[in-house]
Design brief:
The complex is a heterodimer.
Chain A (H helix, E strand, L loop, with lengths): L2 E7 L4 E9 L2 E7 L4 E10 L3 E7 L4 E10 L3 E7 L4 E10 L3 E9 L5 E11 L2 E10 L5 E11 L3 E10 L7 E10 L5 E10 L5 E9 L3 H8 L5 H17 L5 H14 L3
Parallel strand pairs in A: 1-3, 2-4, 3-5, 4-6, 5-7, 6-8, 7-9, 8-10, 9-11, 10-12, 11-13, 12-14, 13-15, 14-16
Helix pairs in contact in A: 1-2
Chain B lengths: L2 E11 L2 E12 L3 E5 L6 H8 L6 E9 L2 E2 L5 H7 L1 E4 L6 E5 H13 L8 H14 L10 E2 L5 H15 L3 E5 L7 H18 L2 E5 L3 H6 L4 E6 L2 E6 L2 H9 L2 H6 L5 H15 L1
Parallel strand pairs in B: 3-10, 3-11, 6-9, 9-10
Antiparallel strand pairs in B: 1-2, 1-4, 4-5, 7-8, 11-12
Helix pairs in contact in B: 5-6
The chains are: A mainly beta, B alpha/beta.
């Protein structure tokens, strides 16, 4: 049985914050046209669930999505013409889960900037991030950051698909993976599927252990090795923390994110 | 009173000996110009003083304020009051300059002192940024990320101003700086030197920097060994004549010269 909770986002310049305990449900958020809004969403995923965001035309949305819990989930985001989304997302799970996020750029000038952080400490995190260009003059930029420690593994595909007739579409994917222990592993595949001639697309992927020169640079200013290590790991979550403007939301989510880097 | 003493220092990297018996002393308030041709070991000496793990001290010692540094980690050396402004500063994405410098300062201040308040820190940082004529936004940008070459060098001096070390090593701080920026950076270095009686080792290939930061002693390092020491007139000599005559004087010939000599001898014998 699938339950559904529909949420209409109204108003202009709003900052909204939600905590959802997700259990065998479909949740949909419908953002009306001509709206600028910022949404903080904290998910506690108890059972497999799906969230759908529909962003109507000519709207600007910033979505900060922090999730934790014990089960897999899926997010689908549909962006209509002349609308933009800035998505900052972090997933902290101690069990093996699959997380799939799909963004559909469904109208001319629709755009998305996505920043994803997924740590794994002894768990196995799989799934994909999909950037689907369905229309011309659409733009997507994805920054994907993975951290593996203990016996943790991250196995993710990032897929940009540019369908036929997506002229002048632009897509870039950049993956950064930090491996902190001998037994941990990151498998990340940046994938471009291009069905139209006149598009711009790029991808990059850098996975490795901590850069010794970065550590040395930080230590040369007086930080200990552990401080330097933490500051480098923290650099993956800082771009998300900087975007959180709701103190209550921050007080709930920051400890969860800090814990992923051993703080 | 701060004092850095390097005695008969031999250091290697990947099994290759780079420093071969370096002796050098730096007192507080003293400015030493460290010169030498490319690949002579100047940057290696700077890295070894700051404990870079890629270099191994094979023999000799480095002492700071009477304490031997050989076994100390890089951060311990920094907290004692040593600072290295690097030739190619590294980028740390995701960490703002402000957070990084505050953390570094907190580490320093915890040595028996109370922490500097965030308010006082921000005032000090703003003032230092203004002194260096840097873009205000640089404080909240990620460390060295997308900085121009000049901005990176100014950022090194910004960190030095904030941390107020006892002795600083400036490794080609003038490379990548335009004429005005060299003047601004030099003024800031001189001001900090005057304020705290800071000692300096200044590495540069260019005479122009030493017109602003006037050394009390000039040291020439060639092939990992200090071959000549003098006063500031040695700078003029090097500027006019290069390092060849100093090499000859020290009985050193570079590999090309040796090869040419061998070739000449073979031809002569033929």
């Amino acid at each position: 049985m699938i339950n559904s909770l529909d949420k209409e986002i109204l108003g202009r310049g709003n900052i909204e914050s939600y905590k959802l305990i997700v259990s065998n449900s479909n949740y949909s958020f419908n953002i009306q046209k001509n709206i600028t809004t910022k949404i903080h969403l904290f998910l506690d995923v108890l059972n497999e669930s799906k969230l759908v965001f529909n962003i109507s035309e000519n709207s600007n949305v910033e979505l900060i999505l922090i999730s934790t819990g014990s089960n897999s989930y899926e997010v689908e985001i549909n962006i209509e013409r002349d609308s933009s989304l800035k998505l900052y997302t972090a997933d902290s799970f101690n069990t093996d889960v699959s997380i799939t996020k799909s963004v559909y750029l469904k109208g001319i000038n629709a755009s998305v900037y996505a920043y994803e952080y997924i740590p794994s400490n002894d768990s196995n995190i799989t799934g994909a991030f999909k950037l689907n260009h369905l229309y011309q003059d659409t733009k997507s930029e994805g920054i994907f950051n993975y951290l593996a420690n203990g016996t943790g593994t991250v196995n993710r595909d990032t897929i940009s698909t540019m369908e036929e007739n997506t002229f002048n579409a632009n897509s870039s994917e950049n993956i950064k993976g930090l491996i902190l222990s001998e037994a941990s592993r990151i498998d990340a595949k940046p994938i471009l599927i291009i069905k139209c001639d006149d598009v711009h697309a790029s991808h990059g992927c850098a996975i490795g252990t901590i850069n010794a020169n970065e550590i040395y640079y930080l230590m040369s200013r007086g930080l200990t090795y552990n401080d330097a290590l933490k500051i480098i790991c923290k650099s993956l979550i800082n771009p998300i923390l900087r975007e959180i403007t709701d103190d209550d939301f921050l007080s709930i989510t920051k400890p969860i994110l800090d814990k992923t880097i051993g703080e | 009173m701060a004092k850095l003493v390097i005695k008969d220092l031999w250091a290697s990297a990947q099994g290759i000996m780079i420093l071969k018996g370096v002796n050098l002393e730096v007192n507080d308030g003293e400015i030493i110009a460290l010169m030498g041709p490319n690949g002579s070991g100047k940057s290696t000496l700077a890295y070894v003083i700051m404990g870079h793990p890629a270099y191994k001290i094979e023999k000799g010692s480095i002492e700071f304020d009477g304490k031997e540094l050989n076994e100390l980690t890089t951060d311990m050396r920094a907290r004692l009051g040593l600072f290295l402004a690097m030739q190619s500063p590294f980028e740390i994405s995701g960490v703002t300059n402000r957070d990084f410098i505050k953390q570094a300062l907190d580490k320093k201040e915890t040595k028996g002192n109370k922490l500097i308040s965030y308010y006082k820190f921000s005032l000090k940082l703003d003032e230092a940024i203004k002194d260096l004529e840097m873009d205000k936004d640089l404080a909240d940008r990620y460390v060295n990320e997308s900085f121009s070459g000049g901005e990176k060098k100014k950022n090194e001096i910004l960190q030095m101003k904030m941390l107020e070390p006892k002795i600083s090593i400036l490794d080609e701080i003038d490379s990548g700086l335009d004429v005005d920026a060299v003047r601004i950076v030099s003024e800031n270095i001189n001001n900090l030197k005057e304020k705290n009686n800071m000692g300096l080792i200044v590495i540069s290939h260019y005479h122009r920097l030493y017109e602003y930061i006037k050394p009390s002693k000039v040291v020439v390092l060639i092939n990992g060994t200090i071959v000549k020491t003098g006063d500031s007139t040695l700078l003029d000599f090097i500027d006019k004549n290069g390092f060849d005559s100093i090499k000859r004087e020290a009985g050193m010939e570079d590999e090309i010269t040796l090869l040419e000599t061998c070739a000449f001898k073979v031809n002569k014998n033929d």
